[in-house]
Every structure is written in C-alpha cells, then in structure tokens.
C-alpha cells in the first residue's frame, strides 16, 4: 500500500460511512476535508472535531474539493448532483468507503447484496459466524462503518451488506465470498430507468473475484441468470435453489421443508444435510435468505453442527416478520417493513396459521390483485389501519369474511385479538407506506409492539 502522506482526500457526505472513511483516512496520513450539503448530526461533528478533521456543512467549497487527489462519495449522493458533475469533469478518482477500508485490512469478508433480503441475510450470516466463535465484524449498509472498524482492525472476518449505490463506486474491493440474493426493479431512477443497468450495478460485486473466491447466487432469479452470462469472472460459482433444477447443479437445495442439502465439491467430499426446522424465519423469501447465509457460513468454515446450533437463537432486524407477543395463544407478528405489495405477499404466504391481517397506510399506486387469492384462503379478518382505506376495502371486501377500519394502532391490536382464536396469527403487514399516521415504518412497528405489550399486561392473570 503506497503511503497516503500529504495526499488530499475529500469525503462527500458526513453520515456513518463518510465519517468512518474520514477517520480512517486521517489515521493513515491523508489530509482530509469532509463536505456535506446538509447538516451534520452532533455525534458525527464530535467525532470529526476530536480527530482534528476539517469539515463543512450546508455548503461545498468547490476550490478545495476540486484540489483533491481522491474523493470518497457517500452512497446517497447521486451522480447528477452538481458537485459530482464538477468532480467527474475534473477527472478526480471517486471511490466508496468500502474501497478505502479494504486497502487497510487483510481480513476476509463476506459481501451480500440483492434487492430484497440483504439485511436479514447479512445479520444471519454474521450470527452464524459469531456463534461459531469467529472473530467477526458487521458493517456496510446495516448501519456500521466498515472504515471505522478497520481503524482498529481487530477482526479476522467482516460480513458486509452492500447496496447497489455502494457498489457503484467500488473498484478494488475483493470479498472472499460474494452473495447476490435477487434482482427486482428498484431505485431505477438512479439507473436511467433500466433494469439491465441496475442489474449490472449489483453484479459489480463479482468484478474482482478470482479462483480463490466464491460467488453465491440465486439460481431461481431470472434476471441474475440472464445478466450473469455477460459477466466474465473465473470464480467458484455456488448457486442455490428452492427446488431441483435440471439446468443447474445447486450448491444449496431444499430436499424438504426442513432439510437443506449442501453440495460444494470445492470444499466437501460428499453432500451434507442441514436441518433448518429450528429457524425462526418465516416464508419462502427467508428460505432463500437461509440458503445463502448457510452456504456463506459453511464456505467460511462453520460446521453443519455449529450452524444448526445457532439457527434457533437468531433474532432478525426489527419490523421484519418479527414476533412481538403471544396473548392467549394468539401470536402477534410485526412486519411493518412490508411497505409494498410484494413484501406483504411474502408475509401472507409465509404464515401457516389463520390470519387476522392489519394492513393499510399511504397507498403508492398499489395493485392488490396478487394478494387476493392469499387473502381468500388465509385471512379470516382484515383491519384497515389508515386515513383513507377506500382502495383496500374495494380490493378485499369480497375476499375476506370480515373487514373493518380504524385510525388507531391500539384499537387495531385490540380488535384483532378479539377477532382471533387461539392458534391464529395477528399480522401487521401493511403493503403501504406509513406516512399517513406514523413518522415511518419503524414508528408504526414500535407503536404496534407497544400496543401488544400493553394488551398482554391487561390480559395477564397477575395484573
């Protein structure tokens, strides 16, 4: 690694990744300027001041920025921003925080991307390694700076969640294991409304892989299958699938609801079986996330016995099919993160018990047609929680036995409990944004969980 002494580095954006990059760069000898067009959070100001790093907010000093030898761009800044256009015009190299951090660590890493399921898969992979006794760090899009952790560089492994925005400016970073879960249309405004361009951004995760690396990907995803053919990398491909395929030798394949078969000829003399019956994760999409995480952990050296022992203790991120209580045999599940129809479909499909469904919020032009067969088959009552529930009522009034509406999350929880029988599930999976009654989906999920706790206390024999 060439010395950074005296080199000028500008960090654009002073969030978690930007501040982490600045701290690492300063420690390695760069002359650092942090520039943010918005306002810095007090915690980040304090970190920068303590490290003696120059920063500016609500402005970009173009003369200083254009004097940089290199720019680290925070993932949220679009290419069309004026400051980025000026930097590109000047030909200044632009890298990601991930690239910068990878220069200064010899640790191995597992990098995970995909449109859906990234966070669950990243947290599960990290959990499997940590429970097996690995010295492992968690970083990237899950909200922890890779660069700041590399400053101490205490880990042998890192598990990174990477968005397409992070991958866009990643050039030299080489993960030991790269994981691509799926590609569905999202953020297309950043990619000229081209699914192909967005897919290629995701596939950047493979660009530096070689024969010592592994690429785990979803063989059931048609976009990945199509677009990966145009990528030329000499690496160890490990496709996973939910079912037997004549066209693919799957490295991970479900033989039954509870048995995942691992077939990794590069590592194993013969296939292995992993029992996933004790996993708390619900639904078909989580079966894909499980396959990817288990494959990644196995490649990293976690044994089948260690994987099976760790699965039951995994706790997913809040608001993703998260169990939040059981009152008189009625289970309550918080899936507030399901802000679109596709996510709600996975939730309804994944829950096996009869459902009292709480849905609604700010409609984003939703088409509920795909949810109607599931609702007819599985939902015994629908409680619409929103300011304007007309579209939900129109879509489901003829599909469910009982439908009512409320604008109170406390009332929704109480009514759901009254309508449910022991063994049923009350599922908050809104299929809509939250901004009509709540600050965001986290606020909605927290209020739901609090209402469940409050009702549980009321119903408790000791209260």
Automatic annotation (TrEMBL):
Domain Mur ligase central as annotated: residue spans: 112-297
Main localization (coarse): cytoplasm
Binding site for ATP: 114-120
Pathway the protein acts in: Cell wall biogenesis; peptidoglycan biosynthesis
Catalytic reaction list: UDP-N-acetyl-alpha-D-muramoyl-L-alanine + D-glutamate + ATP = UDP-N-acetyl-alpha-D-muramoyl-L-alanyl-D-glutamate + ADP + phosphate + H(+)
Entries under Gene3D superfamilies matching the protein: Mur ligase, C-terminal domain, Mur-like, catalytic domain, NAD(P)-binding Rossmann-like Domain
GO biological process, one term: cell division
Protein name: UDP-N-acetylmuramoylalanine--D-glutamate ligase
Organism for this UniProt entry: Hymenobacter busanensis
